Structures are given as structure tokens and as C-alpha cells.
Amino acid sequence: MAVRAHMSRRTFDRRFRAHVGSSPLQWLLAQRVQRARQLLESSDLGIEAVAGLVGFSDGVALRPHFRRLVGVPPQAYRAAFAAR
Does residue 10 lie in a domain region? Predict the structure, then answer.
């Protein structure tokens, strides 16, 4: 992102954090998890497929970020949503 913005990484990180309130990596992870939530709510795709669609290498990579940001693992999130 810094290259596209024609800035050094350090300058880009500082300006991004000042504008958005988090680091570029944390923002990107939050966006990926948010999209994963949407897919878990609206589709029957497996966790591995959802992980791939939102930019993680696999479900193992998605799970800790999902749990940290949402509070529950992806499977539990889907189960709670399906119970509604």
C-alpha cells in the first residue's frame, strides 16, 4: 500500500494510523474478518472456503483472528447465527 501511495512504509504507516486509528495490518485483518462474518451468516460455504475467499491461506489462519475480533470461533458464530 505504501508503494502505491508513493510513500515510505514508515510514513504510510504513521499517516494511516493517524487517519484510520489502527495499523494497516490490523485494519486489513479486521476487514477480512468482517467479510468472513458476512459469508458465514449468508452462505453454506465451509470455513476453509470462507478463509480463502477473504484472503487467508486456510481456516487455521482465519480462526485465531476471528476469535480475537469476534469473541467466538467461526463455527460457533455460524451455529449461533443459524439458530435464529
Answer: no
Q: Is residue 2 a part of any domain in this protein?
A: no
Give the residue numbers spanning the domain of 48: 22-82
Query: pTM for this one?
Result: 0.89
Element (H, E) at 25: helix 24-42
Q: Is residue 3 part of a domain?
A: no
Q: What is the mean pLDDT of each run of 10 residues along the chain (84 residues)?
A: 94 96 96 97 94 97 97 94 70
Three-state secondary-structure class, residue 12? helix
Instruction: Return the CATH number at 61.
Output: 1.10.10.60
pLDDT of residue 84: 63
**What residues contact residue 11 under an 8 Å CB cut-off, 6+ apart?**
2
